[in-house]
Please model this.
Amino acid sequence: MKKIAIIIPAYKTRFLRETLDSIASQTSRNFTLYVGDDASPENIRQIVEPYQAQMDIVYHRFETNLGSRDLTAHWARCIRLSHEPVIWFFSDDDVMPADAVERIERGTRQAGTNRIMFRFPLAVVDGEGRELHRNPEADGTEQTGYGLLLDKLSGRISSAACEYVFSRDVWEQTGGFVSFPLAWCSDDATWVKFGEYAGKITLLPGAPVCWRNAAGTNISNSSQYDKEKLEATRQFICWIRKQCKEYLEDEHLHQALTIYLQTILRQSVHWNYKLSELYGLCRALWGISPQASFQTALHHLHRRSRRRVSHQMAG
Model:
């Protein structure tokens, strides 16, 4: 029985061959690759089939598209295709280093295959594979789920699903993925939850996993879903308030949330929001830190004032 399930919820074919090439190049074959085709209009099967002679692949085409309505539910049904004790949830456009599975094996030899969570270093690449960003080197060999949350909120790191590996019992005992609209913030909340349940996130040093951020392929680059992104962000803040009760007085959390919200408004939705949406975000944040909520509202008023002055000068 293989120990590791690599699971790809597949819909796009643009970079799928490059992803499969990186998996076929693994120095260890102690894995089964599961490809869950979300009723894609593109011919995923045709791309996957030639690789079946190179590695153990289970391809399954779902008859109905679920990702457009409930992406985390599609992720969950892909995981249910598998049975291995260790799960690596990957993507149809990302790339892994050749020794990645081998590094997971080394981790399981030390920690076992129950109540574990691993994390690879991460690099962000564009459509041509050029590196755009690389996370800073981690301090130490492990971190807590809460430490990961602070790093993410404060902007110290980028975070993507492809860098995390977890045991099946972690998945089952915590209830799986946290669900928000468009699955925006869902993965971040999930990794924090998994890390807290596992007790620690063990880092796997070495070459990074490459997360693809190509124009036209991710909702991160699209303004079409700004309303849903803002609602998901509001729900994420409410989730933090409920799930991180023991940390609500931590000033580091307050500072990180202030930075996070300003980054969402500036970079993720490019200031495209209604006052009612800003109010919803600030109200959610007030339950954790009134000061951070006030600073977010003040930041909006300051920006609006600057825009008014700029328009007056232009006129």
